[in-house]
Design brief:
Length: about 400
């Protein structure tokens, strides 16, 4: 039996146990009404440090739905599955969520390779919606997914170009680049490389690397031969990233680093020493200010204050709220009906629904009125491929051990 703090928040190490507990509860009390959703993410593995706030964002939606009348006449429950950020584990966990736990839809996965594997092998064949709040590989856009795969985070076809433009604007005309050898790393590298060269930049060293090695000294030495002083790195914060940074600094070959949102990780900062990262620049998804974001932030501060402002939490909240709205709109947990309803609740038409407004949404759906969810991370409308129709990124710099926003791209 797991313990819960006075704040109601489970300790990080108990997240998996929490998922199991929810599953047992649901199985122990057969539910003729209500709905179950799955959360599929790297609870262990190279992105585990980022997971607790992301899980909190999903739990906030579950709390709000149940406090404001529930779903399909019953309660909304959540079951977790651990991908370990690997395709194999993702497929196994997705199989359990869909075939054993009988979820109506899945929030996740987070790592792009995990999302692609779970979608192709399980979710799409079984006709179950997946909404990823963090998988950014361009490869997801072109999946033959029968419109069952969506995401609230923008494709790296945008982020890679944004980062390249930002680097050029900083006056950096030569870089070396290394990237983790998977869909996430390749997608970012391909788009950064193309845009950077187009703008006149030179990639003096360029190679993929395998995650979770104990040493990258050979790769670092080879990358440094081109004479670049800056290393562009697309890697996981609890995988290859801290090892590459530490060994680069030890060898005195690279002292300035450039990266994507994976460079934002508090555990990694403690590992390598954040003062050693002064001058680092990185892109990170930005959430627009306004009523939607303010409502979300207020609710998150009350429920999970330590998770406010963390990476991909707004995107996760939106994914979970959208899935709940789609289930209620469909009036069913049938996968195809949920898929079709998902587009109906986020198409730019109908009464605006903002974060936390579950009771209002239920009333409008019951009355046969059209609704349009406006999310904490943006409009939440999807294009024909299931990607968000708008996105924004902040450019951050680490200076004197602190993070500063130095630019915004939309």
């Amino acid at each position: 039996m797991s313990t819960v703090s006075k704040s109601g928040k489970l300790p990080i190490g108990r997240i998996l146990m929490a998922g199991t507990a929810v599953t047992v509860l649901a199985m122990g009390h057969a539910q003729a009404q209500g709905a179950k959703i799955g959360f599929l993410g790297g609870l262990t593995g190279p992105i585990a440090g980022a997971l607790p706030p992301i899980v909190d964002a999903t739990r906030l939606v579950v709390r709000q739905v149940n406090a404001q009348g529930g779903i399909l006449g019953g309660k909304l429950t959540m079951v977790t599955g651990d991908t370990k950020c690997s395709p194999q584990s993702s497929v196994a966990s997705a199989n359990k969520l869909i075939n054993v736990d009988r979820v109506a839809g899945i929030i996740g996965a987070l790592c792009s390779s995990a999302t692609i594997a779970a979608a192709n092998s399980v979710a799409v064949p079984k006709g179950i919606v997946m909404i990823s709040p963090a998988s950014t590989s361009p490869a997801i856009t072109g999946l033959k997914d029968k419109d069952f795969v969506f995401r609230t985070a923008a494709s790296d076809s945008f982020q890679g170009k944004v980062l390249a433009r930002a680097v050029i604007r900083q006056g950096i005309k030569k870089v070396a680049m290394t990237f983790v050898n998977n869909d996430y790393g390749k997608g970012l590298a391909d788009n950064f490389r193309a845009e950077y060269k187009k703008l006149g930049g030179t990639v003096a060293g360029d190679q993929a690397h395998e995650d979770k090695k104990s040493s990258y000294r050979g790769e670092i030495a080879a990358l440094a031969k081109g004479g670049a002083k800056h290393l562009v790195m697309f890697a996981y914060p609890q995988g290859s990233a801290p090892v590459i940074i530490r060994q680069s600094l030890e060898a005195g070959l690279f002292k300035r680093f450039i990266g994507s949102e994976a460079m934002y990780d508090e555990k990694m900062y403690k590992t390598v020493g954040i003062k050693n990262l002064n001058g680092t620049i990185y892109t990170r998804p930005a959430s627009p200010k306004g009523r939607a974001n303010a409502l979300y932030t207020s609710a998150m501060k009350k429920a999970f204050p330590k998770s406010v402002g963390k990476l991909f939490t707004t995107h996760t909240y939106d994914a979970a709220f959208l899935l709940a709205l789609a289930i209620e709109k469909a009036g069913s947990t049938n996968g195809t009906k949920v898929r079709d309803a998902l587009r109906a609740v986020a198409d730019g038409k109908g009464a605006k629904i903002y974060p936390g407004q579950w009771k209002r949404a239920k009333a409008l759906i019951k009355a046969g009125k059209a609704i349009d969810y406006v999310g904490a991370a943006g409009s939440s409308d999807f294009d024909k491929n299931g990607d968000p129709t708008e996105a924004a990124y902040h450019l951050w710099r680490i200076s004197r051990g602190k993070h500063q926003v130095i630019g915004t791209f939309k």
